[in-house]
Amino acid sequence: MIPEIGHFALILALFVAIVQASVPLIGASRGNTAWAGVARPAAVAQFVFVATAFGALMHSYIVSDFSVKNVADNSHTDKPLLYKIAGVWSNHEGSLILWITILAVFGLALALAGRNLPPALRARTLAVQAMISVGFLLFILLTSNPFARLDPAPLNGRGMNPLLQDPGLAFHPPMLYLGYVGFSMAFSFAIAALIEGRVDAAWARWVRPWTLAAWIFLTLGIALGSWWAYYTLGWGGWWYWDPVENASFIPWLAGTALLHSAIVVEKRDSLKAWTILLAIVAFSLSLVGTFLVRSGVLTSVHAFASDPTRGVFVLALLAVTIGGSLILFAMRAPALQAGGVFAPVSREGGLLVNNLFLSAAAATVLLGTLYPLFADALDLGKVSVGAPFFNATFVPMMAPLIVVMGVGPLLSWKRGDLSGALQRLIAAMVATAAAIATVWLVSGRSVGSLEAAFGLGLAIWLLAATAVEYAERIRLFREPLAASLHRAATLPRSAHGMSLAHAGLAVAIAGIAGATAWDQESVNSLRPGAVTTLAGYDIVFQGVEPVRGPNYTSVRANIAVSRQGHAVADLHPERRQYANPPMPTTTAAIYSNGVSDLYVAIGDTDGGGATVVRVYFKPMVPLLWYGAALLSLGGLVSLSDRRHRVGAPTGKRRPASQTGA
User: Fold this and answer.
1) Staple partner for 221: which of 158, 176, 354, 528, CB 3.0–4.6 Å?
2) 201-231 core/surface letters (b: 16 or more CB in 10 A; e: else)
3) Is residue 416 situated within a structural domain?
4) Would you say residue 559 lies in a domain?
5) Structural domain span for residue 53
6) For residue 378, is pLDDT > 80?
């Protein structure tokens, strides 16, 4: 009965979404406040129905109702409760209902928290948001019903992919989806602004917190996925340029550009059309990621569906959403007023350069991801685009971007003094040059050490320049310390957030450079009592023992790690065998001193009692996670800025007909 309630709730949500997508839009265009006001209660009702459906599916998983096909295909009675719950979104149908639920949550949030928005803009934005819901509700009801029944019901389910039975994967998809779907708010605001024919500082102030929230969630989701790949897959890597990894990284790049572009609209009333386009592109790239995961064109542990009818539906949804929004942009964008002008050397100019590099990087990663698919579709042969391509194209675009990030915040709005900014960065330049020279000389003067030195130099440059900019803001060493501290306490939180985020990126770059250039690896077949040495650590293999988990059997190794005769850690990597579904997995054991990791994974044991032991030394890789945490913290601090909640002061609104709409 509960699954039928969930299915019926989805149908009701579709009808409510249709009303929400049409009636408020007509009301706003005709000036009918009653019709425009339908948007808010409709958004609340849609959330209630979608949440009911999501709760019904989750209940079916928790109680192991195997009469529901989705539960039977992706769950098992032996699974721990956490993975029964995570099983809801571990598959195509469940992940789709999670997407729709988050979409409804954002619509509800705008309906409840958007009281300071102009009624017409709020009505149009909620209507556009509902149009997206209509597309996805049709998708799930017509091709991906999560409540389909089995008769007779099996006694037990098939279980979930063991690789996904991990705490990191339990939280990674919801975070990613909060980011993906969060960009729908920026998209809805952009389309509403195009319909209304008005983009100004107030619009940018309204759209920024929604974009920032989506960016934070997407950052956390990518970081969690990277950490999961690092410690679960047993190969010691944290990024592989997998197409599905790229599918989340591309909208992150576009969203980062959108955040910076919206600042220019808010502060200087410039780059309006470009910002609207970025809002459309960021969400469109999120939809492209959805197509890649659900169309069956990719083979990946992340990919859900292989049914071509689903791929065709998603492709049609892409065509309507992206094509329609771009056509509307082409029609309305030329009518948007250009706004203030600025010199090439200015804060606006720096942010524009930032946007160009981020957009080019996103386009490059998108091309590298899609090109093998196009080549295969056109019978041009099987083409593999991997890490060498992305490293050779993406990294060179990021280097000048990091340089500009150090200089841009020190430039004035409208017209900046480049020489003055560079003079204030002399200390940062000296620190960068010293870091590059020291790292290159100490690490052997090889090509690899030069690349590492350059990467660490960029990190030092950005960190030092961020510190200089913050010190300039609070007039550190130019006023008494008490006055500087008072200035720091009264700075807008967005200023603190920017400094934290830039510092976080610098820390992450340092971790990437160190882990890439100086990692070490040792692979040996060891018998009990054998010792291998790596990076000054003595690794003593003490043997293996069988272990039984809640829904798997395991061979666990006992490994003692010491350094210079002092015990450091006892590590227990495992090789697990799941029964439902039958699949082996590897669980690594990691010792971290906070600056570097010793990473151990085991392979098969031969007939003579020797076990393959893989040991990796990963210097500076923890800095990658610290940097991601700082990036997210910076976003949260900026999001808490009161100015994002009270809106921007604005003059008297003019009718859309007077703005060229």
Assistant:
1) 176
2) bbbbbbbbbbbbbbbbbbbbbbbbbbbbbbb
3) no
4) yes
5) 1-160
6) no
Domain boundary residue among 145, 160, 175?
160
How many angstroms separate the CA atoms of 306 and 24, rounded? 37
Q: What band does 295 get if pLDDT is binned at 50, 70 and 90? A: low
pLDDT for 661: 31
Mean pLDDT of the region 529-550? 92
Task: Tell me: pLDDT of 336 over 50.
Answer: yes
Helix segments in 164-242, DSSP class H: 167-196, 201-232
pLDDT the model gives residue 646? 53
Coarse DSSP helix, strand, coil percentages of the chain, rounded to the nearest 5 percent: 65, 10, 25
Residue 283 placed within a domain: no
| Residue 641, pLDDT score | 84
The structure tokens listed for 300 are 């990946």
Last residue of a domain, one of 160, 179, 197: 160
**Cβ atoms of residues 132 and 104 within 8 Å:** no
pLDDT tens for each residue of 95-115 = 899 999 999 999 999 999 888
Instruction: Tell me how many domains the chain contains.
Output: 2
Q: Looking up tokens 């094509």, which residue turns up? A: 323
The bridge status of strand 537-548 relative to strand 552-563 is antiparallel
- Distance (Å) of CA 620 to CA 223, 343, 596, 627: 16, 40, 5, 11
Kindly state the tokens that stand for 352. 């524009």
Q: What is the CA radius of gyration of the chain?
A: 27
The residues that bridge with 325 in the sheet, in sequence order, are none
Lookup: tokens for 467: 């510190």
d(CA 424, CA 541): 55
Omega before 152 within 30 of 0, i.e. cis = yes
Which pLDDT band, with edges at 50, 70 and 90, does 309 fall under?
low
